[in-house]
């Protein structure tokens, strides 16, 4: 099975702008007290000043200004480490920072060799719902149990979005925001959908500006007010496991433990398995 080649960015400076915006937002969210700095004078905003962040990172305030303005200053991996530490980023936020800067995180362990084709085939040997997502969160492989659980992965024809099944695989985000049944199927839909958008942003990293991803994000933002609001929060979160509840129209309430694995050679492919932990009520 051949894998799709990655698209070249339509705007070579978009990554720098996203990096600058991300750093600025997190600087504004971090108080001087949380950063271990004394509160001095009146502030127009509660976050760190550029000079304070520069001091914590061991760089000049001018460099921080240029970085936040999206100039191509090409920060080194060591400098990014200091920025991540100063801003107290979570592991997911740190990974996103390095993705945007197109740098390898020195703390990231080397991945072992493994063929992704085996991951794509493996879902059919799993007896519980299982599927594989690509970078756009298209469902590039899935077993019959997943198809049944997610109601055929269909989007609603009542929305402005129309996508004949022959045009490509289903997409998890389109299902989540364009299928009205998803709101009843997925327990605590508002919280889960907000978290999934944050996980998707983290998953995209520095590829947000590539054509396939940009087209999907623009489509979701235009057609779903909820997605648009969640996306503008600029939150990133690590995709993690845990219990996932569903209220299925045919099978009643189902509870699964979610397990997500990545293909080592192609980490943009994720194998998601849902292992039952409770019987339907």
TrEMBL record:
Domain HTH cro/C1-type span(s) in chain numbering: 43-94
Short name of one Pfam family: MLTR_LBD
One GO MF term attached to the UniProt entry: DNA binding
Highest taxon above the source species: Bacteria
InterPro entries, per the entry: Cro/C1-type_HTH, Lambda_DNA-bd_dom_sf, MLTR_LBD
Gene3D superfamilies: 3.30.450.180, lambda repressor-like DNA-binding domains
PANTHER family, A to Z: BLL4672 PROTEIN (PTHR35010:SF2), BLL4672 PROTEIN-RELATED (PTHR35010)
Name used for this protein in its record: Transcriptional regulator
């Amino acid at each position: 099975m051949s894998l799709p080649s990655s698209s070249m960015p339509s705007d070579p400076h978009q990554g720098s702008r996203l990096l600058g915006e991300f750093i600025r937002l997190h600087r504004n969210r971090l108080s001087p007290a949380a950063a271990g700095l004394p509160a001095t004078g009146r502030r127009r905003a509660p976050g760190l000043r550029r000079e304070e962040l520069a001091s914590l990172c061991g760089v000049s305030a001018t460099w921080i200004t240029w970085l936040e303005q999206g100039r191509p200053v090409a920060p080194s991996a060591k400098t990014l480490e200091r920025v991540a530490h100063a801003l107290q980023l979570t592991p997911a936020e740190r990974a996103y920072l390095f993705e945007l800067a197109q740098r390898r995180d020195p703390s990231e362990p080397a991945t072992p060799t493994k063929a992704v084709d085996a991951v794509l085939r493996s879902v059919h040997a799993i007896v519980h719902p299982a599927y594989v997502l690509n970078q756009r969160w298209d469902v590039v492989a899935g077993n019959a149990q997943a198809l049944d659980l997610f109601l055929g992965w269909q989007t609603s024809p009542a929305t402005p979005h129309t996508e004949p099944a022959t045009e490509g695989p289903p997409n998890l985000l389109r299902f989540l925001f364009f299928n009205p049944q998803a709101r009843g199927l997925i327990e605590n839909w508002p919280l889960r959908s907000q978290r999934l958008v944050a996980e998707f942003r983290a998953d995209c990293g520095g590829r947000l500006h590539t054509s396939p991803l940009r087209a999907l994000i623009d489509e979701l933002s235009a057609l779903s007010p909820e997605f648009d609001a969640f996306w503008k929060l600029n939150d990133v979160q690590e995709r993690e496991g845990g219990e996932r509840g569903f209220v299925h129209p045919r099978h009643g309430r189902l509870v699964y433990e979610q397990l997500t694995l990545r293909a080592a050679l192609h980490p943009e492919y994720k194998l998601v398995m849902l292992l039952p932990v409770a019987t339907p009520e």
